[in-house]
Amino acid sequence: MDSAQDFQPRTFSIKLWPPSESTRIMLVDRMTNNLSTESIFSRKYRLLGKQEAHENAKTIEELCFALADEHFREEPDGDGSSAVQLYAKETSKMMLEVLKKGPRTTAELEAPVADTPLVSADTVLDISGGKRAFIEADEAKELLSPLTKPGNSYKRICFSNRSFGIGAANVAGPILESVKNQLTEVDISDFVAGRSEDEALDVMRIFSKALDGSVLRYLNISDNALGEKGVRAFSELLKSQESLEELYVMNDGISEEAAKALSELIPATEKLKVLHFHNNMTGDEGAMYIAEMVKRSPNVESFRCSATRIGSDGGVALSEALGTCTRLKKLDLRDNSFGVDAGLALSETLPKLPDLVELYLSDLNLENKGTIAIAKALKQSALQLEVLEIAGNEINAKAAPDLAECLAVMQSLKKLTLAENELKDNGAVIIAKSLEDGHSDLKELDVSTNMLQRVGARCFTRAVANKPDFVQLNINGNFISDEGVDEVKEILKAGKKSLDVLGPLDENEPDGEPDDEDAEDDEDELDLKLQSVKVEQDEDD
User: Fold this and answer.
1) Pick from 101, 116, 143: which residue ends a domain?
2) Distance of CA 274 to CAs 69, 105, 192, 248, 330, Å?
3) pTM value?
4) By residue range, what is the domain housing residue 411?
């Protein structure tokens, strides 16, 4: 042992850079909250939806981390404090730029926030902030006064979340008509809430007449309970649009008749890149008219027709029509009653969509047959897919081999959702094995509510435990024993990921069992299969 006089005090250096993965995730969560909840800035700039806010937050964090890390490399002997300051400063700056730009939903993968041209604040008039409120003539005159100033340069307007009565509309009409030739983006979603049908229709007609002849690239008329009458109230505006690139008609009561009216009234859809019909009452008959619009829209990059009550016949028609949209990057058909036949039709279309990056097919009643057909199609044509959601389709272990082969070649996958199916442990073993090798970009895996037990949970956990960017494993709603949960935690601790990636287990039933007679009883025997299962691929792949 060294004597006291030989003791030399050691100098400890605390490095502030780089931040831990959990710190980076926490920052993304905080930015998401700042971009999507009311604050001092939200009174001036429009808030983003949760999903868009999260996407922007992740992009901002990645850009700022890279910038600060490069700065740190130039001062390797420093403690990292200046890098931390730069990291914080740039994230704050970019958040404000995103808020100024306002919410945007595009089909294409967005360019990094720092490289995206930002629209200056004086080209956007957004009165949507604050609580939803009725506005009448006097308030409308005050709110829209910036549009009356000579030489103003407003190109984008957002009147969402304000309910216009006849008096306010009569004030707005002449003002909008005076600036319509300079407008390129109009958001009049949710702008007649609480008004009687007659008054709402009159307001729509006033706005439609005022904006007739404008050359818009973006039009949002969502959340207005339009129905056919509402669509036709916008006739003058819709008929005059020859250059639309983005059209949003969500939560609008779009029935068969309303869908027919839309298809008739919009003269040109060749330039459309975004076409969203989420949450309507379209049904099979209405889907036929939507399909006609889709056929005339070859440049669409983002198509959303989720929760529109479309069944098998409409699903087949829509799936076939999508074959013309060869530039499609994002396809969302969730929460419809497509069934197997529409699933088979969709499998014929998918190979025609080589640029597909996000695919949302949850709750379509695809069953094994439809799922297998889609998996085989994706295996050949969608190697670049980043998001695949196929939850709630009554998929069991019989479809697992084809799903596994498909997933094995999707090395760009970032998010996979297989929740609310019936994979059980037998299916879990096969699918988890396909995710083990590669898949370095995988961030989220949701296999909740799949009748998984101890083995299935272990398999999926092993598959993701060492993925460098992985952030969320959801195995809730299954039948994982207490011992199995402990094993899952130990696997995560032994790997590169912490327990932070494990989602809640409040709906897990440790004492539950799959409700059929074929449930696997011998977990140890099943676990041995992990060593022999391989994802088989065709020889010509």
Assistant:
1) 101
2) 36, 8, 24, 8, 9
3) 0.75
4) 215-532
